[in-house]
Design brief:
heterodimer, A: mainly alpha, 3 helices, 61% helix, extended, B: mainly alpha, Arp2/3 complex 21 kDa subunit ARPC3, two-stranded antiparallel ribbon, 7 helices, 2% strand
């Protein structure tokens, strides 16, 4: 682990933790949602002409599907980076 | 970055789908070639896709007090170039559109265009520009930050074009600026975080898979 890597890791933790631990800077809503809300400000008459075929029935179901997405990816990465010889 | 289902007028949705289709078709052809060539390349392809799955599953906090997705496309574009990245992004975006109601089928073309094509292409240009001086690991950081951040700029332009604030190009630019005000600042620290993670992964990848990474042109 060289010095640059340590510095980068510290930078990442700082960037992620400082905002979350600072009280009152935001409600931590998604930027995607804020962007979609701005469409309404630009063109209040616009109605979405199609809705999602299926929507997770609760926040819990949504979070388990997001976790599943990360788990699938993490599992594959762990398997492929396990350090066995490739030749 | 995810334009929600139905949130682009039909003409724009169709235009972006038409834009994205040839890139995804070309990328699919490239993927098929890799599959025939060697199982090791196939494994690296899976790794790039898996990285995208992990990164885009996270909604990270930003200095603006809101959260946003990294894109995870930097690693793929460094390993395989923009064509293959478009295919992998499409897989991730279809998963999220169908299972998470994030993004949508009608807006898939626009979302593939930003996250899978234009963002990664800008990352790729940055990577090829700096790689000779910085090496692969730092080059991957540059590619990833550019790919992630510019994805959200593209989204801002897409939304600005579909929902202008006034007549002509001026209305589009003003509207794109409004959307960029939501996305650009929030995304910047997230892009930097993603860049560090991608650089760490490619460093480890070169260490444990020296042969295949050399074949892919990213050897140490």
């Amino acid at each position: 682990m060289n010095r640059l890597a340590l510095l980068a890791a510290a930078g990442v933790l700082t960037l992620l933790l400082i905002p979350v631990l600072t009280p009152g800077i935001g409600a931590w809503g998604g930027a995607d949602g804020a962007g979609m809300a701005m469409i309404d400000a630009h063109q209040p008459s616009y109605e979405p002409w199609f809705t999602s075929i299926w929507t997770p029935p609760s926040g819990e179901i949504e979070s388990v599907l997001f976790s599943l997405q990360a788990a699938i990816g993490g599992g594959i990465i762990g398997y492929l980076l396990r350090g066995s010889p490739d030749a | 970055m995810h334009i929600a289902e139905g949130f682009l007028p039909p003409l724009w949705a169709a235009a972006w789908a038409l834009f994205a289709a040839p890139f995804v078709a070309y990328g699919t052809y490239r993927v098929a070639t890799y599959v025939r060539q060697s199982p090791e390349r196939m494994a690296m392809l899976a790794l790039a896709g898996a990285f995208m799955f992990v990164l885009s599953a996270m909604k990270l906090p930003s200095v603006t007090g809101s959260t946003s997705h990294p894109t995870g496309t930097g690693l793929a574009v460094v390993l395989f170039g923009p064509g293959v990245t478009a295919v992998l992004s499409t897989i991730v975006l279809v998963y999220q559109a169908l299972l998470l109601a994030h993004g949508g089928i009608t807006t898939l073309g626009a979302n593939v265009a930003s996250m899978g094509i234009i963002g990664p292409a800008i990352g790729w240009l940055g990577y090829t520009a700096v790689r000779g001086r910085t090496g692969v690991v730092k080059g991957t950081f540059v590619a990833t930050v550019l790919a992630d951040w510019s994805t959200y700029i593209v989204t801002s332009v897409q939304l600005g074009a579909a929902f202008p604030t006034g007549e002509g190009i001026g209305g589009v630019i003003a509207a794109a600026g409004n959307f960029a005000a939501v996305f650009a600042v929030t995304q910047l620290p997230i892009a930097v975080v993603e860049g560090v993670i991608a650089a760490a992964v490619i460093k480890q990848l070169i260490a444990v898979k020296p042969v295949i990474t050399a074949k892919l042109g990213v050897g140490a």
